[in-house]
Amino acid sequence: MQFATWNVNSLNIRLPQVLDWLAANPVDVLALQELKMADEKFPAEAFAEAGWQAVWHGQKTYNGVALISKEPARDVVKNNPLFEDEQSRLIAATFGQGELSVRVIGGYFPNGQSPESDKFAYKMRWLNALRTWVSEEMQKHPRFLIMGDYNITFGPEDTYSPETLEGTIHCTPEEREQLQALVDLGLHDALHAFSPGPKVYTWWDYRNLAFRKNQGYRIDHILISDALKNCAQGCLVDKTPRKNERPSDHAPVVLTTT
Asked: 39 an active-site residue?
């Protein structure tokens, strides 16, 4: 099976790019973030015409998440049932059958803006509640993964300029402690396991030729349970869509398992 995550930074703008990417990369499940559209605007018909199933949790102008799949999603949950939230940031579903089924959470984690802001405090509360929910989900689903735009780096190696970016948003000790606490539930960083080299990024600013200079951050992650780690075959960043005209500022991350 293949699982992928991609912050598309507006599905209104990039639907053709997503459909083209799926045609070239027929993954089993694609988690999308930053749809930036209300539920009634979601292009379900366009995905269906291309042979895809979809479940989504939209929000006008901001946020929004979806799971695009070959097979129908089961037991769909929108947002964290343990955390009251007006923002559309999480969607969960089960794919596959029997012992080979996989529980998937797709997430658009809060940015946080700055360590001194109310948005950062919200991010910390959101992450605390997420960890509790993930722990419960993992107990019910041994084959489990949570993927998306985490808006957090694991360490200095995940930024192009650690000497200037340490302590700034995405790179604070508080955020990294939260990410590590999530991993400590029994999860594994899939991309790092297969692409541990330097300068492996998933997001590049639109400004200052950042993509061309590879001045990026690694903030899009796929965390997998022990059961999936044991059958993982590879994980990579597909930088091809970042070269498109009017691209998203993120690139897809793709996990392959048996």
From this structure: no
